[in-house]
Amino acid sequence: MIETHDLTRKYGDLVAVDNLNIQVEHGEVFGLLGPNGAGKTTTISMLCTILKPTSGTATVNGFDIIKQPGQVRKSIGIVFQEPSIDDRLTGRENMEMHANLYGVLKDVQGKRIQELLSLVELDDRQNDLLRTYSGGMRRRLEIARGLLHYPRVLFLDEPTIGLDPQTREHIWRYISALSKEQDITIILTTHYMDEADLLCHRCAIIDFGKIAALDSPENLKAQLEEEYVTIQTQGAADLLQQLQEASLVEGGEVNGKELKVKVKNGHEVLPRIVEVAASNGVRIESLSLHEPNLGDVFLHYTGRVIREEKEEKYHGVAAAKRRAIK
Questions:
Q1: Same domain, 78 and 94
Q2: How far apart are CA 326 and CA 324, in angstroms?
């Protein structure tokens, strides 16, 4: 459904996206993950024809983003990170205006709008002004609006940012339903690793404009063999020495009563740690195993240093272009 060919975007000396090559399959939920300034927003902007590549190209639904931008735009729906709905209109009026802009036929508009408002559970609030909607309701309306013209690909840029946990779970349910029931491919950017882990079939971790890793969340986590066991005990230092002598741990750190050790195959090692402690008279107060999660994978490939958004000064131009094509 999406294929990039050495897709590159430069801002002067800054290479925001560097010879990107990815393939997204039909019906897939594909995550773009990366720290600030990694190139996620620029990549989406090029795929949506908001920005032109410096070199390379891509196809979306079989259409070239440079040679056939109009066909690409007809194929996609977009939910931007920034709010993009008119709070002076009602929910239904926003939907009707968007349907007209995208050329949805009059004889199907009513049914399509009602169908989508029901999908996101807003049919009972459709005649209320947007200014009376909560943040979660506005986000749900934006998702519905992005689907009006039957797009083949839906781009969701940080779809749950700033929402409370309950509302986030509702949005997750809608995204899952879209993938399974609406025959649609979804490109998702997010900083929430639990969101990517739950929703995405595959994730690409982008750093400095390049793909650092690409696989399913399960396979990405499996690549990190290191697990950590945290032990609370009065004999933390003694236990660490005993575990090292028994060749059960690769390394450890003592902080008061807390001992944190690095292991492989944690579920197999835990009972042996308890045995070593008991045989040496060390009383364990608590024991926990931390298995790698997608956040650990993210940090492994991108590091722990927070970077400033180097593309930030260019985003004003991109935002203006987004408004121009809405």
A1: yes
A2: 6
